[in-house]
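Bench notes, bay 3.
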Amino acid sequence: MNDALKAHKPTIGPWSALLLFIAVFAGVYVAVKAGQARAMLHFDLSNPRAMVAFRASGSILLIWVEVAALYFLLKLRGQRFANLGWRKRAPIWAWVAAAIAFAIYAGFSFSGPMLKGAPFLTDWSAFRILTALGIGITAGFGEELIFRGFVMTAARDGGAPTWVQVLLSALLFGIAHGGWGGMTANFSIGSMIGAIAGTSILGLMLALVYVASKRSLMPAMFAHGLIDLVIEPWLMLFAVSGGFERLHP
C-alpha cells in the first residue's frame, strides 16, 4: 500500500469529525467576518473594486485557515489529504465530466443578468488577474478538499450511501456561501437564499464529478478553479454593487 494512504488508528469517528469541522468552520467564519468588520473602518472601500479586493482577501484567508484546520482534524481520523483523493489519478471520462460541468455553469453565469456585459475578454488589469487567480486557486483546491473530499469521505466512512454523500456535500457547500447575502451594508435574505441555491447546484455538479472520478479530487478541483477563474471578480462586483438585492428584493 502507498505510504500516503496507510491508515493510522482513528481517535474520532467520521460523523463526529464532520460535526467538529462544521463547528470549527463556523467559528473561523465568524472570527474572520468580525475582523473584516473592524478592518473596514481603516480602509477607503467606496470604490467597488476596492471592496471586491477586500472581500476576496477575507474569503481567501478563511479557506486557507480551514484547510489548515482540516489537516489537523484528519490526523485524528488517521487520514491524509491523499485519502480524500488529492493527487489521485482519474479516468478520462472524469475530466470530460469536469469540462462539461465548467461549460454548463460558466455558460449559465454569463448568459444571465449577473454577468451580462462583463469585460472578461478585455479587462486584463492587475485587479482582475490577481482576484481571479487568488480566488480560483483557493476555491479550486481548498473548497474541493473540504466539501467534496472531506465531507463525502466522512459520510462514506459513516455508512452513508453515495446519493446522501452527494446531497450532503452540495447542501453544506451552498450553506457555506450564504454570506453572499451580506456583500453590501444591507443583508438580504433573498440574496442569501439565491446564493445558497446557486452554489448548491454547483456543489451537486462537482460532487457528481468526484463520484465519476472514482473519488479523485483532481477533475473537480480543475473545474471549480476554472469556473472561479473565469467568473471572478465579475460576480463579486455584481454582489457588492447590490446586484443580488435587485434580483432578490
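Next record in the batch:
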Amino acid sequence: MEFLITFFNTVLYQPLLNILIFLSTLLPNQDFGVAIIILTLFIKLLLSPFSLKAIRSQIALQELQPKIKEIQKKYKEDINRQSQAMLELYRKEKINPFSSFLPLLLQLPILIALYLIFLKGLKGYSNLFFLGIIDLNQSNLVLSLLAGIFQFIQSKISLPSFLKKSENSSEKSQKNKNSSEIIQEQMTYIFSLLSVFIVWQLGSTIGLYWITSSLFSIGEQLLVIKSRVKKIDNV
C-alpha cells in the first residue's frame, strides 16, 4: 500500500500540483483560477480520444437495442444461450460493450489527484483568486449553480434521446418510456442538484474544475452527435 501511495504522489499528485503552480506564475496576477481551467482542458484533451471512442460506442450500443431486446426475448429462458448470442452480435458488429469504461478507469486516478490538490495541496496559498474577484478559498454560489446547470445540460444531451429524435420518433418515445428511462430522467435532476451541493461544500477550486470539465464533455457529445446527424442524412 505504501508503494502505491508513493507511486501515486510521484507520478500524478506532485507533477500535477507543480504544473498548476507553474501555470499560475505565467498568468497575470498569478491567477490560479485560469490555471485550473487550463490544466483541466489539457487533461481533457489528452483523454479526449478515449472519451470520444466511448461516446461512439454508446451510440453503437443504442442502435443495437432492438436486436438486443430481440435476443433477450428469444432466449429469456436460456441465459447461457442469450449470453452467447449477445457476444456473437457484438463480434459481428465489431463493438466492445466495455469500451466506455476505459475513460472512467483512466480518469479516476487523475480525478482523485486533482481533488486532493484542490482540497489540500493549495491550502497554503493565500492568493487564490479567479479573475481577481472570486476568492477560490471560499465557496461561491454562482460557481455552484453553474456547476449544477452544466451538469444538467451534459446529462440531458443523452445519446438515447438524440437517437430517438434523429429517427423522428421523439413523440412516440415520450409515450412509451420504460422504467429505466424514467429513473434516468429523475437521476438527471437529482445529480444536478447534488452537484450544486457538492461544489458549495468542497469549494470554488472544485467548482471551476467541474464547470470546465462539464463544458468540455458537452462539446465532445455535440461533436459526435453532429457527425452522427450527417451520417444519418447521407444514408
